[in-house]
Amino acid sequence: MASAFTHLFVAAALGKAVSPEKMPLRFWTLGLFCSLLPDLDVITFRLGIPYRHMLGHRGFSHSLPFALIVSLLVALLAFRKVPRFSGKWWVLAGYFFGVTASHGVLDAMTSGGYGIAFFSPFDNTRYFLPWRPLVVSPIGVYGFFSRWGFEVILSELLWIWMPALLLLGMLILYRRKLRRRPVP
Ligand SMILES: [Zn+2]
User: Fold this and answer.
1) 7 alpha carbon to ligand 1 midpoint, in Å?
2) Distance, CA 40 to ligand 1 centroid (Å)?
C-alpha cells in the first residue's frame, strides 16, 4: 500500500475538488472510509488466502468493478435525499468511485508487493503502473518509525501531496475568480 495518510489525503483533496459548496459530514467521513476500504483485504492473510488469490491482498477489493459497486451503493444508500441519477447524484457517485479507485492506483505506483487486480473478477492479472515512484509502505505501525517509513513519506510528499496541492490551489483560485467576475 501507499501510506494510509496519503490515501486519506487524496480522498480529502478529491472531495474539495468536486464540491465547491459545503458538504455534509457524511460526505467526508464516507470519502475517507472508501479511500482505506480496499485494504480491509489484509484480513485474508489471517484467513490463509494467498496474496495472489482473487480475494487476496490487492485483489478484488482494489479493482475498478469493486469501486463501481461501492460508489453506487454509497450514493444510493447514504444520499437518499439527492434525486437518484440526477447530475448531483452522478457527481457523488463519481466522487466515491474516484476515491475508492484511487486506492488501487496509488498502490500500483508503489515499488513493492504484487500488482493490483484492476479488472477482477473478470481478469485477475495483477498490474503496476509503468511509473512507480512511491516507496511501498510497511503494513502496520511499527515499520513506520524507521528509515523505511521516512522514505515512504518523502516519496509521497514529493509525488502526490505537492502536485495535488498545487492543482487544488489553482482550481480554488480559478473558482474564486469566476465568482468575482462582475455580471455583465
Ligand atoms: Zn492497498
Assistant:
1) 9
2) 8
